[in-house]
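Recap from last week: sequence in, structure out.
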Amino acid sequence: MLECCLLWLPACVVRQVFLEDAGYDWKVLGPDVAELDYVAWQADQDAYACSGQKCSAQSLLLMHRNWRKAGLLEQLKARASTRQLSDLTIGPVLTWTTKAMLDHMNKLLQLPGAQLLWGGQPLQGHSIPDCYGAIQPTAVFVPLEAMREPEALQLVTTEVFGPFQVITEFDDGQLQSVLDVLEGMSHHLTAAVVSNDLPFLQKVLANTVNGTTYAGIRARTTGAPQNHWFGPAGDPRGAGIGTPEAIRLVWSCHREIIHDFGPCTATSELKQS
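Predicted structure tokens:
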């Protein structure tokens, strides 16, 4: 599609074209389970809003075992199952075909101990062309130890710019393994540490280097451009959205940690998008 559009542009116009195709972002859930409904809602939004086609999409969820025991996976699966084409809470993927996404899923499922948690099927009852992608919101579980091999880590951290995420779990004695995985990634973009446990937060924040990191029980990956300010006193004429200053603040190599400890909004007031 892009190539076709460029053919119609005058040669004097076409110089350089920059495309943002992805952003592989991780989220760590600490040992202190709290606000389960809210954390599940936020994780669903981070992974699947805009059909996962955003630079701040949650691509890897590393949860402490306590969250599985509390029923987080069941809540995430239930929320994912409500996404549908009719209200655009799921939709076409522009840069990955259905086959490409399912092929990637099948490669992940070949890793030791991997399993499909939900999704993994093409969307039905639509007229989306084959050159685009159309799959259900999908999650694949990969054991933490399985992704420590370099080839496996490269596969796990391949960004699928669509409604797709990898989930794993850890216990108290595996935090260093979690940090090793995070350090082994090729890009360190947006991240989230969902916890109000200060020693846990300090350990993870001190040993990761991501540019924009959200910390606290309300931590998210969505909304990474925190410094694209929206104008003083609500005046849009003073906004910095898209300005060189805002872009430098957000995407230069400084570190930004946004603490968001609560309180959490009642999930009955929150909607999918």
